Structure formats: structure tokens, C-alpha cells
Amino acid sequence: MYIGSYRLSNNLIVAPMAGVTDRPFRTLCKYFGAGHAVSEMMTADKTLRMSKKSLYRANFDGELAPISAQIAGSDPEQLAEAARYQVANGAQIVDINMGCPAKKVCNKLAGSALLQDEDLVARILDTVVAAVDVPVTLKTRLGFLNGQENILRVAKRAEEAGIAALALHGRTREDMYLNHARYELIKQVKQLIGIPVIANGDIDSPEKAKYVLDYTGADAIMIGRAAQGRPWIFREIGHYLKTGEHLATPDIAEVKAVLLGHLSELYQFYGEYSGCRIARKHIAWYTKGLRSSNEFRQNMYKVESTADQAKVVEAYFDQLLDLGQRMSDVQVEQVNLLEIK
């Protein structure tokens, strides 16, 4: 699949998620087989551009190309300026956010709230595409309200504006993340326009990935929440799409190694104070469903240093490995995430 002149290694893409898809997470997902990743959304408000949080989000040092920076806002000129800024900062693709359903974003008439004003949507698309010499992509939803889905008009207008690819979440803003993603309109969008269409929403298994690709005819799929604490989902899906076979679930030793490596990257990226606190949600995702994990997490949340946090994580997984050794004595060949619950 191509986005502009950039050829992706495959059609598996990491969704932009605020507070999640930082550089360490994007790098890890690419290591496990994602062909592309989009950054967390960054505000077009230049007064906030130099905030500590914004600088972290705009850090692309050493990241595998192509680098995609997502911008969010409601003023066409501000968004154009933000696009130019991110390109100067190293972005090779600029992504416009018209899909975020969060109240704090929609209350500023940004994100999915933009879908209420198609004229403004058109002005934003035209202005941002004209502002930069790199591909511009769009991430959006089916519409703002159920029963008022306008994605067919928005998608056609996006193609006319020169948008290089369209990522479409199969829900309206009203849906938030409730109900099931609807793929019928994604299928209709793919039939309507000629630019690449990326399907997003509720893709959480190899079988679901194949179903969505087959049903919608989409060029690629975008995975968000299902990759939280499970970055190897891209490896699993990639293998299944190529062979029709399932890879073995990662065993506890591999999960331990991946998590500790992820923590190390987070600590280096954010530093002592923020690194420890940002890591907590990732640790919770990795350990969800494991034996005695709730008790472990409650204790882990109390740890205040990165060194101690890494130690308690390592100790917890060592306990699981010890359990696995005892289980092997009763002819259980492998302890994996599905068996330790």
C-alpha cells in the first residue's frame, strides 16, 4: 500500500491514540510488524506547541519512516501552520484529526465535531493540503450523530481536496466507543473513492482483521485499543493473513521481556517522574487477565520510582514463570497468557 509516494511494508497500521501512541509505543508496534504508525494528535494551537507534552508528542528521533504526525484543531490557517511546523520537525506525512470523540476536543469544535460543518471540513482539507508538499491523510468517523452519517460526502470531498488516504472509524461521534463498529459505510466509501481507505474499529483478532478487509475491500486496517498491552497483535495478524494459520500465543517469558523492554524505553524517553507514571497504564494492560494481576497492580501503583517499578514487574513475572515450571511437571507444555488466569 502507498500513502503518496511512500510504500508501506504492509497494510497494518497503528491508530493514533492520545496518551498512548508515543514514540516508544509506535517503535514497538513496528518491531512486531505494523507497517505504519500515526502519532498522537498534536494541537494546532501554536501557544501550546512548546509545552512539555507537545514536545514529547512531536519527538520522532530515530523513528522508522514514514513518519506521520497527526494535527487537531478547527481553524484552517492554524492547521496549515501546524502542518508546516510538523513537516519542518521531520514529519513525512501529515494526518488531520476529524475523528476524536473526546468532549474536551469536541467542545473546541475540533475532532469529530468538525463533521457537523461540511463547509469548514472542506476549507480545512483544501488549506492543509495546499500548505505542505507531503501527503496529507484524514482520520474521521461515519458522522457526528447516528442517523445523520455524512461520511460519503466527506470522503468524496476529501478525495477532491487531494487527501492521500482516508482512515475511517466505523462509528459516529455519538457512539463514542460503544456499540459495534459498522463496516457497511466503510465498504461504500471504498466503492466511492479511488484513494486508499483504511478501516478502523473493533479489530481485535486475526480473524476479525481478515473479515474486515474482505468485507469492506479496504486497502488496510488500523488497530488501536487492541494493541494496548498486546503489541504482538500485528505479528499475529500479519502471519494469519499470509498463511491462514495462527501463531502461538506469546509465553510468559516473552511477555516479561517485551514489557521490561517497553518500560526501559519509556523511562529513557520521559525521565524518572513521568516515565514511572506513564508506564503504569501500560503495565496494567500487559498484565490484564493474568493470575493475581489485580492484587499486583494495586501494589504496583504505589511504587514511586522507575527502578522499583521495574523490580516489582520482574518479580511478578518471575512468580508466574515459577508457576509455569510447576505446571510443566504435570505435563502442561507451555504456560501462556490464556492459561494463566
From TrEMBL:
NADP keyword on record: yes
What keyword terms does UniProt attach to this protein? Flavoprotein, FMN, NADP, Nucleotide-binding, Oxidoreductase, RNA-binding, tRNA processing, tRNA-binding
Top EC class of this enzyme: oxidoreductase
What cofactor does this protein call for?
Answer: FMN
- Binding residues annotated for FMN, in chain numbering: 16-18, 70, 139, 169, 200-202, 224-225
Active site positions, chain numbering: 100 (proton donor)
* Classification via HAMAP family: DusB_subfam
Q: Which family does it belong to?
A: Belongs to the dus family. Belongs to the Dus family. DusB subfamily.
Q: By what name is this protein known?
A: tRNA-dihydrouridine synthase B
